[in-house]
Write a structure and sequence with these properties.
The complex is a heterodimer of chains A (284) and B (181).
Chain A lengths: L1 H18 L13 H8 L12 H22 L49 E4 L8 E6 L8 E5 L8 E7 L3 E2 L5 E2 L5 E8 L27 E8 L15 E8 L4 E8 L9 E9 L2
Antiparallel strand pairs in A: 1-4, 2-3, 3-11, 4-7, 5-6, 7-9, 8-9, 10-11
Chain B lengths: L1 H7 L1 H20 L2 H18 L9 H20 L18 H15 L3 H12 L4 H8 L3 H18 L11 H9 L2
Classes of the chains: A alpha+beta (284), B mainly alpha (181).
């Protein structure tokens, strides 16, 4: 049809006007980063397959021994108290990356002195102190860093949520109906939010409002997220048990350390205090 | 096999195909820096996969498949919001002011398409690639390519301020799809 031809020609012309002047920065193979990559290998080797987990754990244990040995040799351990034994060593024995300082009112069991290498944080929890008001209005991905950041905005300051916890977990995962559910990923965290009177609502800001595995909205390194327990909506806030608890399983492409910060200004209550939690990830 | 000799001289293949592949990725991502990175990732991936390529599609289409997938994956990972038009200065050439204006309009309109739709539009209307090859690049059917292009053109028509067309408009894409063009 002639009319379509006109539109198609217009689109083609505009595309040529847009793209023809664009010249990539690496027209020569020998000078290209790709050539460098194939010469030297990829910058990051991902060890994420479940079948490789034994090897990963062995490497992690060896890494721990090396780090501890290095610290002992450097006298670093002599200058500070013996750290609390780790309750779950599965993701901790790794080279520590630099991370931002979490909010001072957040607990961080594996914090280390700033002068020495920081341990890989794999547990994070927050205990509310005020009367619970619940109402998490969103657990959404990304939006800020573009690096798979998990973002939780609460309707009221997080001080009014009974407890928020992130901890490593392992399959099998069981939902509130007792059924085993599958979550994609090679390493897993459990996100527990206690003290809600309404299930969190999806707010991905991408236009697709889906609930479930979040295949459409997660960003690397998150491979999938799945809610395995929602609060019973009629449950009163003074129920400290499962009635006010929401649990998510976060599947990651590879083991990652936690980097958690809290922020203010996202809730709609206008109450002072941090009302959002940002979780980003650091490679071990 | 011709494709094998092309892959053996990967440097020559790179230098012949790089401009087009970079523009494809730029058309999908809308961000020059990201497009440069994604294009490099795509070539590195292609280099590593070249021994397993069986020549089922032309080498250029195979490269495009890798690059388009890398671009779509990159967008998912980085969630780049493609809302800001590129610097218009980059497009300004003597006597081509209207072209630059059209390009900026199109950038804004493309930004409102889904990434896969953008990929289909760039492959079809910039590279003039046939439906069957686009389908193999995007991993879908020729019918779906036709549907994507039809929806994309409808959207672009609205956003570019194109006057509504007579009955039967926008049927060429669908017809091409059914012909497997």
């Amino acid at each position: 049809m002639a009319v379509d031809d006109r539109l198609e020609a217009r689109v083609a012309g505009a595309l040529h006007a847009y793209l023809d002047p664009a010249v990539g920065p690496h027209p020569r193979w020998n000078d290209s980063p790709a050539a460098e990559i194939v010469r030297t290998g990829p910058p990051v080797v991902r060890v994420a397959r479940r079948s490789d987990r034994t090897m990963l754990l062995v490497a992690a244990v060896l890494g721990t021994l090396l780090i501890v040995g290095g610290l002992v040799a450097g006298g670093a351990l002599l200058r500070r108290p013996t750290p609390t034994p780790s309750p779950s060593p599965s993701l901790r024995a790794v080279v520590p990356p630099p991370t931002t300082t979490p909010s001072p009112n957040a607990s961080e069991p594996t914090a280390a002195p700033s002068s020495s290498p920081k341990a890989c944080v794999t547990h994070w929890s927050y205990e509310g102190t005020a009367s619970p008001k619940g109402l998490a209005d969103g657990v959404r991905i990304d939006e800020f860093s573009g690096q798979g950041t998990l973002f939780m905005a609460f309707g009221h300051p997080i001080d009014t949520v009974r407890r928020i916890e992130l901890a490593p977990t392992e399959p099998p995962f069981v939902n509130s109906a007792g059924k085993t559910v599958t979550v994609r990923g090679n390493a897993f965290y459990k996100l527990t939010i206690q003290g809600l009177h309404r299930a969190t609502q999806v707010n991905d800001n991408i236009g697709r409002h889906t609930v479930g595995p979040y295949r459409d909205t997660v960003a690397s390194p998150i491979a999938a997220m799945r809610r395995v327990r929602a609060p019973r909506l009629s449950s009163p806030l003074d129920d400290p048990g499962p009635g006010s608890t929401e649990i998510w399983i976060i599947g990651l492409e590879r083991p990652e350390c936690l980097n958690v910060t809290t922020r203010g200004g996202f809730g709609y209550s206008g109450e002072p205090g941090d009302d959002a939690v940002l979780v980003s990830w650091d490679l071990p | 096999m011709a494709f094998r000799s092309q892959l053996d001289d990967f440097a020559a293949l790179y230098e012949r195909t790089y401009p087009g592949l970079f523009r494809t990725v730029l058309g999908i991502c809308g961000d020059a820096a990201m497009a440069a990175d994604v294009t490099q990732d795509a070539y590195a991936q292609a280099y590593r996969q070249r021994s397993s390529f069986r020549g089922d599609v032309p080498v250029d289409a195979w490269l495009h498949r890798i690059a388009v997938n890398a671009a779509l994956t990159g967008l998912r990972r980085r969630k780049v919001r493609w809302t800001e038009p590129l610097d218009p200065v980059r497009h300004e050439q003597p006597g081509r002011a209207s072209d630059a204006s059209a390009a900026i309009d199109l950038e804004s309109a493309l930004a409102r398409l889904e990434p896969r739709q953008r990929a289909a539009v760039v492959l079809r209307y910039y590279h003039d690639i046939d439906y069957a090859t686009i389908a193999s690049i995007l991993g879908t059917s020729t019918g779906n390519v036709g549907s994507m292009l039809t929806r994309s053109l409808e959207r672009l028509r609205r956003d570019l301020g194109e006057a509504p067309t007579a009955v039967g408009s926008l049927t060429t894409t669908a017809k091409e799809a059914t012909r497997g063009r």
